[in-house]
């Protein structure tokens, strides 16, 4: 999966889960502060990403603060 595809996939899933406009989902957007993601939103995002990469440890995205952090971790998973 290319970098552009990873960014688009993460953005699309965030838009769907958090019910927000795609323009709000930039790489520097903070999940909780800017996108108002709560713990349920973050859990749903984790589960939706497991659909792509299979079972992931709970810690995989725990430290992610921004969309860019999620994308960076997804890139790491893609390269494994």
From TrEMBL:
InterPro entries recorded: ACP-like_sf, PP-bd_ACP
UniProt superkingdom: Bacteria
Segments forming domain Carrier: 1-78
Name of the molecule in the record: Carrier domain-containing protein
């Amino acid at each position: 999966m290319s970098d552009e595809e990873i960014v688009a996939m993460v953005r699309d899933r965030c838009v769907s889960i958090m019910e927000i406009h795609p323009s709000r989902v930039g790489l520097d957007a903070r999940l909780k502060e800017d996108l108002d993601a709560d713990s349920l939103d973050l859990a749903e995002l984790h589960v939706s990403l497991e659909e792509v990469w299979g079972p992931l440890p709970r810690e995989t995205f725990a430290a992610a603060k921004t969309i860019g952090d999620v994308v960076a971790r997804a890139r790491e998973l893609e390269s494994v």
